[in-house]
Design brief:
Layout (H helix, E strand, L loop, with lengths): L2 H14 L2 E3 L2 H17 L5 E6 L1 H7 L13 H11 L14 H13 L1 E6 L7 E8 L2 E8 L5 E6 L2 E5 L17 H10 L6 H20 L6 H9 L3 H17 L5 E3 L5 H18 L3 H20 L9 H16 L4 H15 L11 H20 L15 H15 L1 H11 L3
Parallel strand pairs: 2-3
Antiparallel strand pairs: 1-8, 2-4, 4-5, 5-6, 6-7
Helix pairs in contact: 1-11, 2-4, 3-16, 4-5, 6-11, 7-9, 7-10, 8-9, 9-10, 9-14, 10-11, 10-12, 10-14, 11-12, 11-15, 12-13, 12-14, 13-14, 13-15
Length: 422
């Protein structure tokens, strides 16, 4: 494999597979709020929060970790102001103390935080303007979860960064193709990515176990195990769903994300881990299968963008199907057909915000990925001309990207109108 391509894929994995505590949109907001407080140099007396519609959609219904069960934009901002450590980025609330949890609630009760929908047209935008006495600070975050593009204090610019599009990270994602991903997974020196993959296995397995044993959200993972038995395919769905049960509903364990999303990180990894344990493969084989799953997920998400009306778990479910196919000995041809089958089954599932029902959508996404694999195992497949499926895996992926990125823009606006009661 070309060394430049291989190095880019290694960099992509290191950029994408990072830890986060809590749903990434409220955590991104808490991160911006913590940065605004730092620039101000004091606890804000008042705050004005301006956010894009997709931030409203994804912050509205999930519990912000380390807040005693609080939900919503105001809670995420208050947590960042009172107790956030912006140096930890998406783990900004990881070290909140019990005293600080009480202080967050008290702050919300006694300070004004106003929220306004952004009209800039950006899909991902958070602007935090805070005041104390005669002093102000303003932080603007755009395009991805940790991309602070400007910091101001009293009207003076302290920092000016890059605001040039949705893709985050320096590595060139345009190099991604299914054929190259499989080649890379086969030949990369695992020591180059062992730490990031090992962390994904450790973190995401721990939160899935918490979801299966605790009382979180709608309990989709536990319900799947109680009603559908102990087959490997059901466990794959249940573990991924259980991780989301926990994460969407206040569990204070970190996850390793993919494409800016913890749900996508868990969907891409946990089914592959479950199948690897069932099949008794070596650790190295599991790591290579997870490389396939994670990079296939990134490949599918790159053309869609960070946030859209298209449920991101669907892309990650395709990634999981590809990773499990690798565990069974499938390589480029089998993996390509698995992905095509999977996107033909489930593309079009809408994202109506981060919440408890994400776990059920994850179970559906994993099921589609596995069905796509089992179809091809048994000589069945969808072919070019079947709906959005066309000749060539990369062309089919581009069709999905067009559907999600362009075709569902009006859907995204209407979903937000419904959620806001407009």
């Amino acid at each position: 494999m070309d060394k430049n391509v291989s190095d880019a894929f290694t960099a992509i994995l290191k950029e994408e597979l990072i830890p986060a505590m809590g749903c990434t949109e409220p955590i991104s907001l808490a991160y911006a709020a913590a940065a605004a407080r730092r620039a101000l140099g004091a606890l804000p007396e008042s705050a004005e929060i301006t956010v894009s519609g997709n931030i409203i959609k994804n912050v509205k219904s999930v519990i912000v970790p380390h807040t005693g069960g609080l939900r919503g934009i105001e809670a995420a901002a208050a947590a960042g102001f009172v107790a956030g450590d912006e140096t930890r980025q998406l783990e900004v609330l990881a070290s909140v103390t019990e005293d600080e949890v009480r202080a967050i609630t008290e702050y919300l009760a006694s300070h004004a935080i106003t929220v306004t929908k952004s009209e800039s047209g950006r899909l991902f935008e958070i602007i935090v303007l805070v005041r104390t006495g005669e002093h102000t600070s303003k932080v603007t975050l755009a395009d991805s979860h940790t991309n602070i593009v400007s910091v101001e204090r009293d009207g003076q610019t302290l920092y000016l960064g890059d605001c040039g599009g949705e893709a985050h990270g320096a590595a060139d994602r345009s190099l991604l193709s299914i054929e190259r991903i499989v080649d890379y997974a086969e030949h990369v020196r695992l020591d180059e990515v062992r730490d990031v993959i090992a962390r994904q296995i450790e973190y995401n397995t721990a939160i899935a176990k918490a979801g299966l044993t605790g009382d979180y959200g709608a309990g989709i993972g536990r319900i799947l195990m109680m009603t559908n038995g102990n087959s490997v395919s059901n466990r794959a769905k249940a573990w991924a769903a259980a991780g989301s049960d926990a994460r969407m509903n206040g569990c204070e364990l970190p996850v390793v994300i993919n494409s800016g999303s913890g749900n996508q990180g868990m969907t891409a990894s946990l089914p592959v881990i479950v199948y690897a344990n069932e099949l008794g493969v070596s650790e190295d084989e599991l790591y290579r299968a997870l490389i396939v799953s994670n990079l296939v997920t990134v490949r599918l998400k790159t053309g869609i963008g960070c946030l859209s009306a298209y449920c991101g778990a669907i892309s990650a479910g395709c990634g999981a199907g590809a990773g499990v196919t690798y565990l069974y000995g499938g390589r480029y041809n089998e993996i390509a057909h698995t992905i095509v089958n999977a996107v033909a089954i489930n593309s079009g599932v809408v994202c109506d915000g981060a919440k408890a029902s994400c776990a059920a959508k994850i179970a559906s996404a994993v099921d589609a990925g596995l069905l796509g694999m089992y179809m091809y195992m048994h000589g069945s497949q969808f072919t070019g001309g079947d709906g959005i499926v066309t000749k060539g895996i990369e062309n089919t992926i581009e069709n999905v990207s067009r559907l999600a990125r362009d075709g569902m823009r009006e859907t995204d606006r209407e979903i937000l109108n419904i959620m806001m009661g407009c």
